Amino acid sequence: MEHDLAAKDEVRIEWRPSGSLRVNAETSTVRKRRQVEIDLEETGKEFILDHLIGAYLSGAQNIRITSKSGIDREHRRELRKFIQTTRGIEISTESDYKIEMITLLNPGEMPLHSSINRMYLLVSTQIRDVVEVLSGGDLTILEDSEEREKEVDALRLLLERQVGQILESATIETSFGTTRWEAAELSNIVRTLERIGDHCYILSRLCINQDVPKTLSTAELPVSVITVWQSSIKQLIANLRKRKVKEIHDAKSNLELAIMNLREYEDSLWDLKLQSTDALFLDKLSESLRRILAYTVDMAEILINIHTHRNSIEVTIE
Residue ranges of the PhoU domain (predicted)? Predict the structure, then answer.
């Protein structure tokens, strides 16, 4: 009676990550939505944002924040920060003691590959702008670097939320056109792109806060590895859909060679006759570029995992 089912009504059977099966009332008129309640009396102010993001990643469609002593200005500041950090969250009701937020996201509205491609475009354009500034371009093109980093972070949270929903529901898995195993691997790519975005931001701040050495040439190390990174990550992103594993191998090999060249460059840097400020700038620049290359190698390895899984088959054990 709870699900208003009668004899011969249809039901849906879903596989659960634990290996068990769940029976859903396909034709039931009872609709459910995930809700998370956060009591500010039990949650310290320093952990409010953590709990809100946890609620978002859990797939909650309704987040209710309550406080018997009242929701103060500092609490509300954290709520605004949360709304700015995520996608599709709006406040539906608000009072002195209770705030309710709802998500306006449809799980299938933004496909996983489209969101990953957006993250790639954000980090690649930021690197392009960094190169322009290192070549003597206008610093103002980096003024929005913080906003770009925030957008990368918001996309990461959105994608992790979507992957969580795919892992829980076979219906959502079908709507996204991917498997649960592959969705979990795509989530790893998303985290890798976020880390690349962090170092893109570090490079932008380095260019803004310190003078670019006059001796720096974009045709020489460490900046010359950027062209290797640009061509490699372009190949890797293309192979999210394609199945040309040799392109992934080539990209990984080129990236690893560039990392080795940067390590040698960093070892020799302090033997050069440079001003300490220039040497420090070049060392920081090389370190962030090396980390960006290393994270992109991680992406190549994840894509090899996906490629191998796509080509695997199940055989009967006799």
Answer: 116-201
CA distance 310 to 301: 14
pLDDT on residue 218: 94
Structural domains of the chain in order of their starting residue, each with its CATH number: 35-103 (3.30.1370), 112-310 (1.20.58.220)
Tokens of 160: 């992790």
- CA–CA dist 90, 247 (Å, integer): 43
Q: How far apart are CA 167 and CA 165, in angstroms?
A: 5
Q: Which of 42-46, 77-81, 123-127, 155-159 has the lowest mean pLDDT?
A: 42-46
Residue type, 112: L
List pLDDT tens digits, range 39-74. Answer: 999 998 899 999 999 999 999 999 999 999 999 999
Contact 200, 144 (CB under 8 A): no
Strands 89-94 and 62-66: unpaired
State the DSSP H helix or E strand holding residue 227, giving kind and residue range, or none if neither.
Answer: helix 225-238
